[in-house]
Amino acid sequence: MRRPLLLGIAAGMVVIIVAVVAIVLVTRDDGDSSDIAGAGEVLSAEQRALLDSAVPSPDCPDEPVAAPEDDSLLALDVLRVDENDCLVSSTEYVAADAVDARRDELLSEDGVVAAGVVPDVSIDEEDDRRDDQWPLDRLGADPDEDELPWPDGNGAVLAVLDTGIDETHPDLGDAVVERRSYPGEGAHDPNGHGTHVAGIAAARRDNGGIVGVAPRVSVLDVPVRLRQANENGQSWPVGLTWAVNHGADAANMSFGGAMLDVTVPEELEELQVQVAAVYFAVRNDVVLVSSGGNCGPSQDCDEENQRQTPAGIEGVIAVGAVQEDFDLAGYSTRNEDIDIVAPGGGDMRNAVLSTHLDHDYEEIQGTSQAAPHVAAAAALIRAAAPEATGDEVGQALLDTADLGPLDEGDREGPGVGRGFLDIGGALEQVLGGEPPATPSPDPSEATQAVFVQDDEVFAFDGSSVQRVRELDPGTRMRWVDWSSDHSRLVGSDDGELFSWSARSAPVEVPCGWCSESTPAYVEDVPVGGEPVEGGPERPEENGDFVVGMDYSGTLTWYDAATLDEVGTTMPTFPPNSVGSKTLLGTVGGQLLVHESGGAQALERVWLLDPASGAADSSYEIGGIAQVPIAVAADGAQVAVVTGYGACGAEVSVLDGADLTEVASAGLPEELIYDEVFFNGDVLYATMEVAASDCSALQPGGLWRLDGGQWVEVDELPVGARPLDGLAGGVSESWLVARSDGGVFDPPLGGAPTPGELGTITDGPWATPTRTEVPWP
C-alpha cells in the first residue's frame, strides 16, 4: 500500500506540515496565497476526511456513462466514497438549469465528496519538426549510446491522461497494460497527442525506433475529454480517480484549462471536483505531473501567462518547456505555478520527436512534450526505489533541478521554477547517495504465475496481480502456458480455450476436446496442415499457435492471439504405432504425444515435430498420464507421471531431446500425485493423501526428487510454485497456496499481502524457474 502523504510543490515554496488535517500546505513567495487552489482552501474538513477514508483498488466500481446526443446537457461529475471505502467517480448528464438543484441533492447524500461540471481543458502543444532525440542528450544521455544512464522504469506504472494511445504502434510494444475505455469511443487515439506523449515517456528500445525516458515503464491509457478529441470521454478528475484505483505510481496530464476563481461560489464548486481528485491521488502517493501551459509572450491567449488547472492545483508538478539551447520557449507560460522545466522544443529551435498515428513519428513542441519527461523520471525513480514515497520523489525532482544551464535572463523571472530536470540527481537523492539500482531483469527471464480464486483466474507478472477471466461455476482449469517473452498467456478449462495478454481482454472459444486432451503452445513454426474451410487466409511465414488433438489423432491449429482455426494436420507415426494418441504438451518446441497400448499393449510417449508432423523419438511407459507433464525451463528435461491408476503412478524424468530416461521414482506410501514441476533442474511435486479408492483425501505436502527418492520438503502446502528473476529487492520467492490463504514467501515488496491475495482455490501454476529457488 502506498503511504498517504501529500506533495506540496512549486517554485520558491515554504512547506509547512499541518498535523491536524494531515495535509501539506504551501505558501508562495509572492505573499498572496488567497488564490491558490489548495485542498485546505477548496475542500472542507469533512470532504478531506471522506477522501482520507477511501482506499484505492482496481475492484472499485467503474461504470462509464455514454454521452447523450443532446448537446445541451451538461456532464455533472460526482465523487463519492461508498460503503466499501472506494472513491467512485461517475458522471450524470443534466440540463443546464437543473445543475444546481441536482448538485444540492447529491451533496445531501452520505458519502458524496463533491459534484460539479468540470470545465473543458485543451492540449498544450505546438506543431514543428525534428529529426532526432535531442531531449535525451540534454538530460544527460550519451548521443552515441542506446543505453540510458538511469534505470528503465521496469516495475512502475505511469498513467497517461490524454487523447488516448495507439497501442499498436511498434515503438510502444507492450507498454500499455490497461485502458479505461468509455462508451462511444472510436479510435484509441483520434488525435495523436496521447500517442506522442506516451512515446516520450515509454517508447521501447532496440526496435529501430526512438527510446523513451523510461523504456520499460508500464502505461495506463486513460483517455479524457479534451476540446480537440474524445468529446464523449470522461473528465480528467474521473480519469485520475480510475488511475489511482488501478495502481498508478505517477500520472502525466499534458493539458490545461483556465484556473477557476475560488471567490466565486459557482466556480469554487466546480473546482472542488478537480481538487478532490488531486487530493485523493497525492494522498495515496501518486506523483502528479502536468504541462504548465502554452500562454507565453509569443502566443495569442485570452490572458498572457494565465494560470490553469491542473497545473495550478497543490500537489501537481507544473512543467515549463525549454528549447534545445536551454532557452525558455516563447510559448511556455511564465507564472509562479511552474515548478520545473524540461525539453519541449521552441520557437527558433526544433521540436520533440515521438510516436504518432499510423505507426508514424512526428515532431511536436509544447509544454505537453515537456511534462512526460518529468512524469517518466518520477516513474523510473519509483521503480528504482519502490519504498520511496511520492512526496520524496517529487521533492527530489525539485531539489535537484538545475538553474545553471538556463539563460541568465530566464533564471531571474517566473516560468522556470527550480530549474532544468536532473534525473540522475533526483535519483541519487532518493536513494540516499547510493548508486542507481541494478536494472531489472528482462520479463522473459522472470517467472510468471497463474492461480484461481473461487471462479476467477488471476495472473502474477512479477510485480502485480491482474484478473484474466471468469470460469463457469464448477469448471476447472486444465492447462496453462506462456509465450517465450511472457507477454501472452494461453490456457484451457473443461470446455474452452482462452488467450490473454495484459493489453487486451481475453479471447475465448469453445473446445470440445479440452476435457480429454491437453493443448500445446508452439511458437515460430510454419502453419501446419490444410487450411480450415472458410477460415482466414493463412500467411506464408511462421506463426505462434495453440495446437489441439482430437480422439482420431488430428491436430487442429489455432492462431495464438485470436484463436481462429487456421489448419489441421494428421501426424505421421511409424507403422507399428497403432494405439490411440493423446497430446500431452510441448518439450523444447516439440509436441509430446502419448500412445495407448493398442494391439501390442505398449504405452509410449512420442516427440512430434510440429512443422512436419513426423514422430521420431519415443519412450516406453506403463499406463496413461495421471497428471500434467512438467518441463524444465530450458526444455532439457520433461517429467511424465503415468500408471493404470492414481495409486500405482510412477514419475519418469526424460531427456527433452530424445526421451532417454534420466530418473524415475515411485510414490511415497499412502500418497498420490497432485502436480509435478521443475525448480531449476530439480523435480518437485505436491502430493495428496490417498483414500481407500485412491481418490484424494487431503493435502499431502511438498516433496522433492533426490537420487530417485521422494523427500518431504513441507507437510503444509496445498499448492506451490517457485518464482525467480523478480524485480523489487527480492528476486526469488514462492507463491504458496495453503488452506488459510495464499502467500508469497519470502514476501515481495509491492506484491499483494496475504489478506489481499486471498484464498487460492486452484493452482498456482508458473513458468519453470531457470535456477533452483530455495524453499523458505
Automatic annotation (TrEMBL):
Active site, UniProt feature: 162 (charge relay system), 193 (charge relay system), 368 (charge relay system)
Pfam families, A to Z: Peptidase_S8
GO BP of this protein: proteolysis
Residue ranges of every copy of the Peptidase S8/S53 domain listed in the record: 153-404
Entry's family note: Belongs to the peptidase S8 family.
Molecular functions per Gene Ontology: serine-type endopeptidase activity
PROSITE patterns membership: SUBTILASE, SUBTILASE_HIS, SUBTILASE_SER
Basic and acidic residues composition-biased segments: 130-141
Entry-linked InterPro entries: Peptidase_S8/S53_dom (IPR000209), Peptidase_S8/S53_dom_sf (IPR036852), Peptidase_S8_His-AS (IPR022398), Peptidase_S8_Ser-AS (IPR023828), Peptidase_S8_subtilisin-like (IPR050131), Peptidase_S8_subtilisin-rel (IPR015500), Quino_amine_DH_bsu (IPR011044)
Keywords from the UniProt entry: Hydrolase, Membrane, Protease, Serine protease, Transmembrane, Transmembrane helix
Highest taxon above the source species: Bacteria
Residues annotated as transmembrane: 5-26
Protein name according to UniProt: Peptidase S8/S53 domain-containing protein
Region (Disordered): 119-150, 754-776
PANTHER family for the chain: CEREVISIN-RELATED, PEPTIDASE S8
